[in-house]
Protein backbone atom coordinates (compact mmCIF):
# COMPACT_ATOMS: atom_id res chain seq x y z
CA UNK A 1 0.00 0.00 0.00
CA UNK A 2 1.39 3.38 -0.98
CA UNK A 3 1.77 5.52 2.12
CA UNK A 4 -0.53 8.46 2.75
CA UNK A 5 2.43 10.84 2.54
CA UNK A 6 3.45 9.54 -0.89
CA UNK A 7 -0.15 9.74 -2.14
CA UNK A 8 -0.39 13.36 -1.02
CA UNK A 9 2.96 14.20 -2.59
CA UNK A 10 1.82 12.72 -5.91
CA UNK A 11 -1.49 14.59 -5.72
CA UNK A 12 0.19 17.94 -4.99
CA UNK A 13 2.72 17.38 -7.80
CA UNK A 14 -0.08 16.62 -10.27
CA UNK A 15 -2.03 19.67 -9.11
CA UNK A 16 1.04 21.88 -9.51
CA UNK A 17 1.53 20.74 -13.11
CA UNK A 18 -2.17 21.22 -13.85
CA UNK A 19 -2.06 24.73 -12.40
CA UNK A 20 1.28 26.03 -13.71
CA UNK A 21 2.48 23.75 -16.50
CA UNK A 22 4.73 20.76 -17.21
CA UNK A 23 7.88 22.67 -16.27
CA UNK A 24 6.79 22.23 -12.65
CA UNK A 25 6.91 18.41 -12.85
CA UNK A 26 10.26 18.10 -11.06
CA UNK A 27 9.41 20.40 -8.16
CA UNK A 28 9.43 18.85 -4.69
CA UNK A 29 5.83 19.06 -3.37
CA UNK A 30 7.25 19.74 0.13
CA UNK A 31 4.55 17.75 1.93
CA UNK A 32 5.31 16.64 5.49
CA UNK A 33 3.39 15.59 8.62
CA UNK A 34 2.40 18.53 10.80
CA UNK A 35 3.82 19.02 14.29
CA UNK A 36 0.55 20.40 15.62
CA UNK A 37 -2.82 18.67 15.01
CA UNK A 38 -4.61 22.04 14.86
CA UNK A 39 -2.94 22.54 11.46
CA UNK A 40 -4.28 19.21 10.20
CA UNK A 41 -2.39 15.99 9.54
CA UNK A 42 -0.06 17.07 6.73
CA UNK A 43 1.16 20.39 5.41
CA UNK A 44 2.87 21.73 2.28
CA UNK A 45 4.85 24.96 2.09
CA UNK A 46 5.34 24.57 -1.65
CA UNK A 47 3.49 27.81 -2.43
CA UNK A 48 5.97 29.85 -0.39
CA UNK A 49 8.94 28.42 -2.30
CA UNK A 50 7.28 29.33 -5.64
CA UNK A 51 6.44 32.97 -4.82
CA UNK A 52 9.64 34.39 -6.37
CA UNK A 53 9.90 32.24 -9.52
CA UNK A 54 6.17 32.62 -10.28
CA UNK A 55 6.08 36.29 -9.12
CA UNK A 56 2.76 35.66 -7.40
CA UNK A 57 1.38 35.93 -3.89
CA UNK A 58 1.98 32.57 -2.16
CA UNK A 59 -1.62 32.40 -0.91
CA UNK A 60 -2.82 32.79 -4.50
CA UNK A 61 -0.42 30.03 -5.59
CA UNK A 62 -1.69 27.81 -2.77
CA UNK A 63 -5.29 28.38 -3.88
CA UNK A 64 -4.43 27.46 -7.48
CA UNK A 65 -2.88 24.21 -6.26
CA UNK A 66 -5.94 23.44 -4.09
CA UNK A 67 -8.27 24.14 -7.03
CA UNK A 68 -6.49 21.41 -9.03
CA UNK A 69 -6.18 18.81 -6.29
CA UNK A 70 -8.04 15.51 -6.62
CA UNK A 71 -8.08 14.26 -3.06
CA UNK A 72 -11.78 14.41 -2.12
CA UNK A 73 -11.73 10.73 -1.13
CA UNK A 74 -8.77 11.26 1.22
CA UNK A 75 -9.08 14.67 2.79
CA UNK A 76 -11.44 17.36 3.91
CA UNK A 77 -11.18 20.51 1.77
CA UNK A 78 -7.57 21.73 2.23
CA UNK A 79 -7.14 25.08 3.96
CA UNK A 80 -4.56 27.84 3.61
CA UNK A 81 -2.82 29.06 6.74
CA UNK A 82 -0.52 32.02 7.36
CA UNK A 83 1.45 33.27 4.35
CA UNK A 84 0.55 30.27 2.18
CA UNK A 85 0.81 26.91 3.97
CA UNK A 86 -1.57 24.26 2.61
CA UNK A 87 -3.05 22.12 5.40
CA UNK A 88 -4.54 18.66 4.84
CA UNK A 89 -6.95 16.92 7.23
CA UNK A 90 -7.62 13.22 6.56
CA UNK A 91 -11.22 12.02 6.50
CA UNK A 92 -12.06 9.57 9.26
CA UNK A 93 -13.84 7.14 6.91
CA UNK A 94 -10.78 7.15 4.63
CA UNK A 95 -8.51 6.37 7.60
CA UNK A 96 -10.87 3.58 8.63
CA UNK A 97 -10.85 2.09 5.14
CA UNK A 98 -7.03 1.99 5.14
CA UNK A 99 -7.00 0.19 8.48
CA UNK A 100 -9.46 -2.30 7.08
CA UNK A 101 -7.07 -2.93 4.16
CA UNK A 102 -4.00 -3.54 6.30
CA UNK A 103 -5.73 -5.64 8.97
CA UNK A 104 -5.27 -9.03 7.19
CA UNK A 105 -1.69 -8.23 6.12
CA UNK A 106 1.10 -9.42 8.44
CA UNK A 107 3.27 -6.57 7.08
CA UNK A 108 0.52 -4.06 7.92
CA UNK A 109 0.46 -2.83 4.34
CA UNK A 110 4.14 -1.85 4.25
CA UNK A 111 5.53 -2.57 0.81
CA UNK A 112 8.90 -4.05 -0.09
CA UNK A 113 11.40 -2.26 -2.32
CA UNK A 114 11.03 -3.08 -5.99
CA UNK A 115 14.69 -3.99 -6.50
CA UNK A 116 16.38 -6.12 -3.84
CA UNK A 117 19.78 -4.41 -4.02
CA UNK A 118 22.71 -5.86 -2.06
CA UNK A 119 23.48 -3.87 1.08
CA UNK A 120 26.37 -4.64 3.42
CA UNK A 121 26.15 -3.58 7.06
CA UNK A 122 29.56 -3.74 8.77
CA UNK A 123 29.05 -3.66 12.54
CA UNK A 124 30.11 -4.92 15.98
CA UNK A 125 33.75 -5.75 15.05
CA UNK A 126 35.38 -6.80 18.35
CA UNK A 127 39.05 -7.78 18.59
CA UNK A 128 40.28 -11.34 19.04
CA UNK A 129 41.86 -12.05 22.45
CA UNK A 130 39.92 -9.18 24.00
CA UNK A 131 36.55 -9.29 25.75
CA UNK A 132 33.62 -7.40 24.28
CA UNK A 133 33.04 -4.31 26.38
CA UNK A 134 30.55 -1.46 26.60
CA UNK A 135 32.31 0.23 23.65
CA UNK A 136 31.01 -2.58 21.40
CA UNK A 137 27.45 -2.14 22.63
CA UNK A 138 26.39 0.69 20.35
CA UNK A 139 27.89 -0.69 17.14
CA UNK A 140 26.27 -4.08 17.76
CA UNK A 141 22.81 -2.78 18.66
CA UNK A 142 22.64 0.03 16.09
CA UNK A 143 24.05 -2.16 13.30
CA UNK A 144 21.57 -4.94 14.02
CA UNK A 145 18.62 -2.50 13.99
CA UNK A 146 19.73 -1.01 10.67
CA UNK A 147 20.14 -4.49 9.17
CA UNK A 148 16.69 -5.56 10.41
CA UNK A 149 15.00 -2.47 8.96
CA UNK A 150 16.66 -2.91 5.56
CA UNK A 151 15.86 -6.64 5.53
CA UNK A 152 12.22 -5.90 6.30
CA UNK A 153 12.09 -3.47 3.39
CA UNK A 154 13.32 -6.28 1.13
CA UNK A 155 17.01 -5.52 0.59
CA UNK A 156 19.52 -8.36 0.27
CA UNK A 157 21.50 -7.60 3.44
CA UNK A 158 24.90 -9.06 4.26
CA UNK A 159 25.68 -8.56 7.97
CA UNK A 160 29.46 -8.51 8.30
CA UNK A 161 31.53 -8.74 11.48
CA UNK A 162 34.92 -7.25 10.57
CA UNK A 163 36.76 -8.65 13.59
CA UNK A 164 40.30 -7.66 14.48
CA UNK A 165 41.98 -11.02 13.92
CA UNK A 166 45.31 -10.07 12.32
CA UNK A 167 48.39 -7.99 12.95
CA UNK A 168 51.33 -7.46 15.29
CA UNK A 169 49.31 -8.24 18.42
CA UNK A 170 49.05 -11.90 17.41
CA UNK A 171 52.80 -12.28 17.03
CA UNK A 172 53.16 -10.68 20.44
CA UNK A 173 50.56 -12.94 22.08
CA UNK A 174 51.77 -16.16 20.44
CA UNK A 175 55.37 -15.40 21.39
CA UNK A 176 54.34 -14.82 25.00
CA UNK A 177 52.19 -17.96 25.19
CA UNK A 178 55.03 -20.09 23.81
CA UNK A 179 56.95 -19.10 26.95
CA UNK A 180 54.27 -18.83 29.62
CA UNK A 181 51.48 -21.20 28.56
CA UNK A 182 52.51 -23.40 25.60
CA UNK A 183 49.54 -25.78 26.00
CA UNK A 184 47.23 -22.87 25.09
CA UNK A 185 48.69 -22.96 21.59
CA UNK A 186 48.01 -26.66 21.08
CA UNK A 187 44.85 -27.41 23.09
CA UNK A 188 41.39 -26.00 22.52
CA UNK A 189 39.81 -24.32 25.56
CA UNK A 190 43.05 -24.39 27.56
CA UNK A 191 42.25 -20.78 28.50
CA UNK A 192 39.04 -18.89 29.04
CA UNK A 193 38.66 -15.41 27.60
CA UNK A 194 39.49 -13.74 30.91
CA UNK A 195 42.82 -15.57 31.12
CA UNK A 196 43.52 -14.74 27.49
CA UNK A 197 42.91 -11.03 28.11
CA UNK A 198 45.16 -11.09 31.18
CA UNK A 199 47.95 -12.81 29.27
CA UNK A 200 47.54 -10.35 26.38
CA UNK A 201 48.13 -7.45 28.78
CA UNK A 202 51.28 -9.13 30.14
CA UNK A 203 52.48 -9.74 26.59
CA UNK A 204 51.97 -6.06 25.77
CA UNK A 205 54.10 -5.02 28.77
CA UNK A 206 56.88 -7.37 27.61
CA UNK A 207 56.59 -6.04 24.05
CA UNK A 208 56.93 -2.44 25.20
CA UNK A 209 59.81 -3.05 27.61
CA UNK A 210 61.86 -5.96 26.23
CA UNK A 211 63.59 -5.41 22.87
CA UNK A 212 64.52 -9.09 22.53
CA UNK A 213 60.92 -10.14 23.10
CA UNK A 214 59.75 -7.47 20.64
CA UNK A 215 61.99 -8.97 17.96
CA UNK A 216 60.69 -12.47 18.75
CA UNK A 217 57.13 -11.22 18.44
CA UNK A 218 57.84 -9.64 15.06
CA UNK A 219 59.38 -12.89 13.85
CA UNK A 220 56.16 -14.65 14.91
CA UNK A 221 54.18 -12.18 12.77
CA UNK A 222 56.38 -13.02 9.78
CA UNK A 223 55.86 -16.75 10.42
CA UNK A 224 52.13 -16.24 10.75
CA UNK A 225 51.92 -14.23 7.53
CA UNK A 226 54.06 -16.81 5.75
CA UNK A 227 51.65 -19.55 6.80
CA UNK A 228 53.87 -21.52 9.19
CA UNK A 229 51.76 -24.48 10.30
CA UNK A 230 52.29 -24.21 14.08
CA UNK A 231 51.80 -20.42 14.07
CA UNK A 232 48.62 -20.73 12.04
CA UNK A 233 47.30 -23.46 14.33
CA UNK A 234 48.02 -21.33 17.40
CA UNK A 235 46.38 -18.31 15.77
CA UNK A 236 43.29 -20.35 14.87
CA UNK A 237 42.94 -21.65 18.45
CA UNK A 238 43.05 -18.10 19.79
CA UNK A 239 40.46 -16.95 17.25
CA UNK A 240 38.15 -19.88 17.94
CA UNK A 241 38.31 -19.29 21.69
CA UNK A 242 37.39 -15.60 21.31
CA UNK A 243 34.75 -16.40 18.74
CA UNK A 244 32.92 -18.71 21.15
CA UNK A 245 32.91 -16.00 23.79
CA UNK A 246 31.58 -13.43 21.32
CA UNK A 247 28.81 -15.83 20.35
CA UNK A 248 27.56 -15.98 23.94
CA UNK A 249 26.88 -12.22 23.72
CA UNK A 250 25.40 -12.43 20.23
CA UNK A 251 23.04 -15.25 21.23
CA UNK A 252 21.94 -13.31 24.30
CA UNK A 253 21.19 -10.21 22.19
CA UNK A 254 19.76 -12.24 19.25
CA UNK A 255 22.35 -10.83 16.84
CA UNK A 256 23.06 -12.57 13.52
CA UNK A 257 26.43 -11.88 11.89
CA UNK A 258 28.73 -13.38 9.28
CA UNK A 259 32.34 -13.12 10.37
CA UNK A 260 34.86 -11.91 7.84
CA UNK A 261 37.85 -10.62 9.76
CA UNK A 262 40.85 -8.53 8.76
CA UNK A 263 42.78 -11.72 7.97
CA UNK A 264 40.36 -12.48 5.13
CA UNK A 265 41.69 -9.52 3.14
CA UNK A 266 45.39 -10.19 3.82
CA UNK A 267 46.04 -11.85 0.42
CA UNK A 268 44.77 -8.73 -1.39
CA UNK A 269 46.77 -6.00 0.41
CA UNK A 270 49.89 -6.00 -1.78
CA UNK A 271 47.71 -5.70 -4.90
CA UNK A 272 45.94 -2.67 -3.40
CA UNK A 273 49.27 -0.88 -2.92
CA UNK A 274 50.33 -1.80 -6.48
CA UNK A 275 47.02 -0.53 -7.84
CA UNK A 276 47.42 2.81 -6.07
CA UNK A 277 50.97 3.06 -7.41
CA UNK A 278 49.85 2.33 -10.96
CA UNK A 279 47.27 5.13 -10.69
CA UNK A 280 50.04 7.51 -9.65
CA UNK A 281 48.50 8.13 -6.24
CA UNK A 282 51.33 6.89 -3.99
CA UNK A 283 53.96 9.13 -2.43
CA UNK A 284 56.73 8.18 -0.06
CA UNK A 285 56.72 10.10 3.20
CA UNK A 286 59.18 9.37 6.01
CA UNK A 287 59.64 5.86 4.66
CA UNK A 288 55.91 5.05 4.43
CA UNK A 289 53.80 4.78 1.27
CA UNK A 290 50.91 7.26 1.41
CA UNK A 291 48.12 8.88 -0.53
CA UNK A 292 47.74 12.54 0.37
CA UNK A 293 44.15 13.59 0.90
CA UNK A 294 42.24 16.56 -0.43
CA UNK A 295 40.87 18.93 2.24
CA UNK A 296 42.61 17.10 5.10
CA UNK A 297 45.35 19.19 6.71
CA UNK A 298 47.21 19.40 10.02
CA UNK A 299 47.44 22.50 12.23
CA UNK A 300 50.18 23.92 10.05
CA UNK A 301 48.02 23.55 6.94
CA UNK A 302 50.05 20.70 5.45
CA UNK A 303 48.09 17.94 3.67
CA UNK A 304 47.51 14.78 5.70
CA UNK A 305 48.32 11.34 4.30
CA UNK A 306 46.44 8.06 4.32
CA UNK A 307 49.22 5.56 5.04
CA UNK A 308 48.76 2.29 3.14
CA UNK A 309 52.18 0.69 3.74
CA UNK A 310 54.31 1.29 6.82
CA UNK A 311 58.06 1.89 6.86
CA UNK A 312 58.64 -1.77 7.78
CA UNK A 313 56.66 -2.90 4.74
CA UNK A 314 53.59 -3.91 6.76
CA UNK A 315 50.04 -2.90 5.97
CA UNK A 316 47.46 -1.23 8.21
CA UNK A 317 43.74 -0.64 8.72
CA UNK A 318 43.45 1.69 5.72
CA UNK A 319 44.95 -0.91 3.36
CA UNK A 320 42.57 -3.54 4.72
CA UNK A 321 39.56 -1.24 4.40
CA UNK A 322 40.44 -0.44 0.77
CA UNK A 323 40.77 -4.16 0.02
CA UNK A 324 37.44 -4.77 1.76
CA UNK A 325 35.69 -2.12 -0.34
CA UNK A 326 37.05 -3.65 -3.53
CA UNK A 327 36.01 -7.18 -2.52
CA UNK A 328 32.56 -6.08 -1.38
CA UNK A 329 31.88 -4.36 -4.69
CA UNK A 330 33.50 -6.87 -7.06
CA UNK A 331 32.61 -10.14 -5.33
CA UNK A 332 29.65 -9.34 -3.07
CA UNK A 333 28.05 -7.00 -5.67
CA UNK A 334 27.11 -4.47 -2.99
CA UNK A 335 25.43 -1.23 -4.04
CA UNK A 336 25.44 0.27 -0.53
CA UNK A 337 28.06 -0.35 2.19
CA UNK A 338 27.28 0.86 5.70
CA UNK A 339 29.95 1.08 8.42
CA UNK A 340 28.70 1.37 12.00
CA UNK A 341 31.57 2.63 14.17
CA UNK A 342 32.23 5.33 16.74
CA UNK A 343 32.47 8.99 15.73
CA UNK A 344 36.24 8.97 16.28
CA UNK A 345 36.69 7.00 13.04
CA UNK A 346 34.91 9.57 10.86
CA UNK A 347 38.12 11.03 9.40
CA UNK A 348 39.57 7.57 8.79
CA UNK A 349 36.57 6.50 6.70
CA UNK A 350 36.36 9.84 4.90
CA UNK A 351 39.98 9.35 3.86
CA UNK A 352 39.49 5.72 2.83
CA UNK A 353 36.39 6.57 0.77
CA UNK A 354 38.22 9.45 -0.92
CA UNK A 355 41.19 7.27 -1.90
CA UNK A 356 38.89 4.47 -3.07
CA UNK A 357 37.12 6.92 -5.39
CA UNK A 358 40.39 8.37 -6.72
CA UNK A 359 41.67 4.87 -7.45
CA UNK A 360 38.51 3.83 -9.26
CA UNK A 361 37.83 1.15 -6.64
CA UNK A 362 34.64 2.87 -5.52
CA UNK A 363 32.36 3.79 -8.48
CA UNK A 364 29.65 6.46 -8.32
CA UNK A 365 27.01 3.71 -8.49
CA UNK A 366 27.99 2.40 -5.03
CA UNK A 367 27.18 4.33 -1.86
CA UNK A 368 29.49 4.06 1.13
CA UNK A 369 28.14 5.42 4.41
CA UNK A 370 29.85 5.86 7.75
CA UNK A 371 27.24 5.63 10.52
CA UNK A 372 28.92 7.31 13.51
CA UNK A 373 27.80 7.07 17.10
CA UNK A 374 28.71 8.82 20.34
CA UNK A 375 30.00 7.52 23.66
CA UNK A 376 28.24 5.59 26.42
CA UNK A 377 28.71 7.70 29.55
CA UNK A 378 28.40 6.98 33.24
CA UNK A 379 26.35 9.20 35.57
CA UNK A 380 29.51 11.25 36.16
CA UNK A 381 29.43 12.35 32.52
CA UNK A 382 32.61 10.42 31.66
CA UNK A 383 33.12 7.20 29.67
CA UNK A 384 31.28 4.37 31.41
CA UNK A 385 33.72 2.42 33.59
CA UNK A 386 33.65 0.25 36.69
CA UNK A 387 34.40 1.78 40.11
CA UNK A 388 37.98 0.58 39.75
CA UNK A 389 38.28 2.54 36.50
CA UNK A 390 38.18 -0.50 34.19
CA UNK A 391 36.06 -0.54 31.02
CA UNK A 392 32.77 -2.34 31.70
CA UNK A 393 32.55 -5.83 30.18
CA UNK A 394 29.50 -6.14 27.97
CA UNK A 395 28.46 -9.48 29.49
CA UNK A 396 28.54 -7.99 33.01
CA UNK A 397 26.49 -5.00 31.88
CA UNK A 398 23.78 -7.20 30.33
CA UNK A 399 23.68 -9.56 33.33
CA UNK A 400 23.23 -6.58 35.65
CA UNK A 401 20.29 -5.30 33.57
CA UNK A 402 18.61 -8.72 33.75
CA UNK A 403 19.18 -9.00 37.51
CA UNK A 404 17.75 -5.53 38.14
CA UNK A 405 14.71 -6.31 35.98
CA UNK A 406 14.21 -9.52 37.97
CA UNK A 407 14.42 -7.68 41.31
CA UNK A 408 11.91 -5.07 40.10
CA UNK A 409 9.52 -7.78 38.92
CA UNK A 410 9.75 -9.79 42.14
CA UNK A 411 9.07 -6.64 44.19
CA UNK A 412 6.06 -5.79 42.02
CA UNK A 413 4.66 -9.34 42.27
CA UNK A 414 5.01 -9.22 46.04
CA UNK A 415 3.23 -5.86 46.24
CA UNK A 416 0.42 -7.14 44.00
CA UNK A 417 0.29 -10.50 45.82
CA UNK A 418 0.70 -12.27 42.48
CA UNK A 419 2.07 -15.78 42.18
CA UNK A 420 4.18 -16.59 39.13
CA UNK A 421 6.47 -19.51 38.31
CA UNK A 422 10.26 -19.09 38.45
CA UNK A 423 10.32 -19.77 34.71
CA UNK A 424 7.92 -16.88 34.06
CA UNK A 425 9.97 -14.53 36.25
CA UNK A 426 13.27 -15.48 34.58
CA UNK A 427 11.78 -15.13 31.11
CA UNK A 428 10.22 -11.71 31.76
CA UNK A 429 13.38 -10.47 33.50
CA UNK A 430 15.59 -11.43 30.57
CA UNK A 431 13.32 -9.86 27.95
CA UNK A 432 12.79 -6.67 29.96
CA UNK A 433 16.45 -6.31 30.96
CA UNK A 434 17.88 -6.81 27.49
CA UNK A 435 15.12 -4.76 25.85
CA UNK A 436 15.78 -1.91 28.27
CA UNK A 437 19.47 -1.81 27.34
CA UNK A 438 18.78 -1.97 23.59
CA UNK A 439 16.00 0.58 23.63
CA UNK A 440 17.88 3.05 25.85
CA UNK A 441 20.64 3.08 23.26
CA UNK A 442 18.46 3.18 20.16
CA UNK A 443 16.05 5.82 21.47
CA UNK A 444 18.86 8.40 21.49
CA UNK A 445 20.11 10.03 18.32
CA UNK A 446 23.09 7.78 17.59
CA UNK A 447 25.38 10.75 16.89
CA UNK A 448 25.05 11.91 20.52
CA UNK A 449 26.65 10.59 23.68
CA UNK A 450 24.18 9.15 26.17
CA UNK A 451 24.21 8.40 29.88
CA UNK A 452 23.80 4.76 30.84
CA UNK A 453 21.30 4.69 33.73
CA UNK A 454 19.67 1.39 34.77
CA UNK A 455 16.95 3.17 36.80
CA UNK A 456 15.81 5.27 33.83
CA UNK A 457 15.95 2.51 31.25
CA UNK A 458 13.94 0.10 33.46
CA UNK A 459 11.30 2.69 34.38
CA UNK A 460 7.70 1.71 33.53
CA UNK A 461 6.99 5.34 32.65
CA UNK A 462 8.46 7.46 29.89
CA UNK A 463 10.17 6.59 26.63
CA UNK A 464 11.51 3.19 27.75
CA UNK A 465 11.28 -0.43 26.63
CA UNK A 466 9.21 -1.48 29.70
CA UNK A 467 6.64 1.23 28.88
CA UNK A 468 6.31 -0.04 25.31
CA UNK A 469 6.21 -3.67 26.37
CA UNK A 470 3.42 -2.82 28.79
CA UNK A 471 1.57 -0.96 26.00
CA UNK A 472 1.73 -4.18 23.96
CA UNK A 473 0.51 -6.28 26.91
CA UNK A 474 -2.63 -4.15 27.41
CA UNK A 475 -4.39 -5.28 24.20
CA UNK A 476 -3.50 -8.87 25.09
CA UNK A 477 -5.24 -8.29 28.41
CA UNK A 478 -8.34 -7.13 26.53
CA UNK A 479 -8.18 -10.33 24.48
CA UNK A 480 -7.91 -12.54 27.60
CA UNK A 481 -10.56 -10.66 29.60
CA UNK A 482 -13.08 -10.76 26.74
CA UNK A 483 -12.08 -14.27 25.62
CA UNK A 484 -11.50 -12.83 22.15
CA UNK A 485 -9.22 -14.21 19.46
CA UNK A 486 -7.95 -11.15 17.58
CA UNK A 487 -7.06 -13.28 14.55
CA UNK A 488 -10.74 -14.24 14.16
CA UNK A 489 -12.08 -10.66 14.03
CA UNK A 490 -14.16 -9.93 10.95
CA UNK A 491 -11.99 -7.89 8.59
CA UNK A 492 -15.09 -6.83 6.66
CA UNK A 493 -16.26 -4.80 9.64
CA UNK A 494 -16.28 -1.08 8.93
CA UNK A 495 -13.88 0.67 11.26
CA UNK A 496 -15.71 3.59 12.82
CA UNK A 497 -13.54 6.35 14.26
CA UNK A 498 -16.06 8.56 16.02
CA UNK A 499 -14.01 9.65 19.05
CA UNK A 500 -10.97 11.89 18.74
CA UNK A 501 -8.79 9.41 20.68
CA UNK A 502 -9.51 6.52 18.32
CA UNK A 503 -9.04 8.71 15.24
CA UNK A 504 -5.68 10.01 16.52
CA UNK A 505 -4.57 6.44 17.25
CA UNK A 506 -5.68 5.20 13.83
CA UNK A 507 -3.85 7.96 11.99
CA UNK A 508 -0.68 7.25 13.92
CA UNK A 509 -0.79 3.52 13.11
CA UNK A 510 -0.82 4.42 9.42
CA UNK A 511 2.38 6.49 9.70
CA UNK A 512 4.65 3.50 10.37
CA UNK A 513 5.54 3.03 6.70
CA UNK A 514 6.59 6.67 6.39
CA UNK A 515 8.85 6.32 9.44
CA UNK A 516 10.45 3.09 8.24
CA UNK A 517 11.22 4.62 4.83
CA UNK A 518 12.72 7.64 6.56
CA UNK A 519 15.02 5.43 8.65
CA UNK A 520 15.96 3.42 5.56
CA UNK A 521 17.43 6.66 4.22
CA UNK A 522 18.73 8.43 7.34
CA UNK A 523 19.84 5.32 9.29
CA UNK A 524 18.55 6.92 12.51
CA UNK A 525 16.63 4.19 14.41
CA UNK A 526 15.61 6.63 17.16
CA UNK A 527 12.82 7.81 14.81
CA UNK A 528 11.16 4.39 15.17
CA UNK A 529 11.55 4.61 18.95
CA UNK A 530 9.85 8.01 19.07
CA UNK A 531 7.07 6.77 16.79
CA UNK A 532 6.41 3.74 19.02
CA UNK A 533 6.46 5.84 22.19
CA UNK A 534 3.90 8.26 20.72
CA UNK A 535 1.81 5.31 19.50
CA UNK A 536 1.82 3.83 23.01
CA UNK A 537 0.76 7.16 24.48
CA UNK A 538 -2.09 7.45 21.99
CA UNK A 539 -3.21 3.88 22.70
CA UNK A 540 -3.23 4.53 26.45
CA UNK A 541 -5.38 7.63 25.88
CA UNK A 542 -7.73 5.58 23.70
CA UNK A 543 -7.82 2.80 26.32
CA UNK A 544 -8.72 5.28 29.08
CA UNK A 545 -11.39 7.18 27.12
CA UNK A 546 -12.97 4.58 24.83
CA UNK A 547 -14.71 1.55 26.28
CA UNK A 548 -13.86 -1.52 24.25
CA UNK A 549 -15.42 -4.69 25.67
CA UNK A 550 -18.66 -3.01 26.78
CA UNK A 551 -19.19 -0.99 23.59
CA UNK A 552 -22.15 -1.75 21.31
CA UNK A 553 -21.61 -3.36 17.93
CA UNK A 554 -20.26 -2.49 15.38
CA UNK A 555 -18.21 -0.12 17.56
CA UNK A 556 -16.97 -2.97 19.76
CA UNK A 557 -15.44 -4.94 16.89
CA UNK A 558 -14.08 -1.73 15.37
CA UNK A 559 -12.28 -0.90 18.62
CA UNK A 560 -11.04 -4.46 19.04
CA UNK A 561 -9.50 -4.24 15.58
CA UNK A 562 -7.92 -0.93 16.54
CA UNK A 563 -6.45 -2.48 19.71
CA UNK A 564 -5.13 -5.47 17.75
CA UNK A 565 -3.57 -3.26 15.06
CA UNK A 566 -1.88 -1.20 17.77
CA UNK A 567 -0.37 -4.30 19.36
CA UNK A 568 0.79 -5.65 16.01
CA UNK A 569 2.33 -2.29 15.10
CA UNK A 570 4.21 -2.15 18.40
CA UNK A 571 5.38 -5.75 17.93
CA UNK A 572 6.56 -5.08 14.37
CA UNK A 573 8.28 -1.83 15.33
CA UNK A 574 10.08 -3.41 18.28
CA UNK A 575 11.12 -6.39 16.16
CA UNK A 576 12.87 -3.96 13.80
CA UNK A 577 14.87 -2.78 16.81
CA UNK A 578 15.76 -6.32 17.83
CA UNK A 579 13.33 -6.34 20.75
CA UNK A 580 10.82 -9.12 21.41
CA UNK A 581 7.49 -8.65 23.18
CA UNK A 582 5.82 -10.38 26.11
CA UNK A 583 2.19 -11.49 26.26
CA UNK A 584 2.13 -10.86 30.03
CA UNK A 585 4.34 -8.87 32.35
UniProtKB/TrEMBL annotation:
GO annotation, cellular component aspect: cytoplasm
Does Disulfide bond appear among the keywords?
A: no
Q: Which UniProt keywords apply?
A: Aminoacyl-tRNA synthetase, ATP-binding, Cytoplasm, Ligase, Nucleotide-binding, Protein biosynthesis
Give GO terms: molecular function aspect only: arginine-tRNA ligase activity; ATP binding
Give the catalytic activity. tRNA(Arg) + L-arginine + ATP = L-arginyl-tRNA(Arg) + AMP + diphosphate
Limits of the DALR anticodon binding domain: 468-585
- GO BP term, pick one: arginyl-tRNA aminoacylation
Give the superkingdom in one word.
Answer: Bacteria
This protein's record includes keyword Transmembrane: no
Q: What class of enzyme is it?
A: ligase
Q: Which SMART domains match?
A: Arg_tRNA_synt_N, DALR_1
Q: Where in the cell is it found?
A: Cytoplasm
Predominant location category: cytoplasm
Q: Where is the Arginyl tRNA synthetase N-terminal domain?
A: 6-90
Q: What is its EC number?
A: 6.1.1.19
Matching entries from NCBIfam families are given as: argS
Q: Which family does it belong to?
A: Belongs to the class-I aminoacyl-tRNA synthetase family.
Self-association state and partner proteins as the record states: Monomer.
Which protein are we looking at?
A: Arginine--tRNA ligase
Protein species of origin: Waterburya agarophytonicola KI4
Gene transcribed to yield this protein: argS
Amino acid sequence: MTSILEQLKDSVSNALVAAFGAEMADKDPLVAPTNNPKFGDYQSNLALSLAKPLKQNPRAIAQSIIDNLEIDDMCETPTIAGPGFINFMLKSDYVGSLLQKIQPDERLGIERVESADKVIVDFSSPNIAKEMHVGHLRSTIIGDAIARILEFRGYDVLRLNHVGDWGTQFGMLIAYLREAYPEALTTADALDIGDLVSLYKKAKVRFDEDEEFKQTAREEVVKLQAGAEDSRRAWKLLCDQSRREFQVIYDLLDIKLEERGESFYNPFLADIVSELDEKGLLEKSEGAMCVFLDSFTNKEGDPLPLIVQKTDGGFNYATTDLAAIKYRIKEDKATRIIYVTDSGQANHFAGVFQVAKKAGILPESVETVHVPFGLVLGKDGKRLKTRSGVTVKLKDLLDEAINRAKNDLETRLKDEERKETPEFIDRVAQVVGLSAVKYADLSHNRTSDYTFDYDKMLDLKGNTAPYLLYAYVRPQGISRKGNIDFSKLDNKTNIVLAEKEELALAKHILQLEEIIKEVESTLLPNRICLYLFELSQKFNQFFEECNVLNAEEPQKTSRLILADLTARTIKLGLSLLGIEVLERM
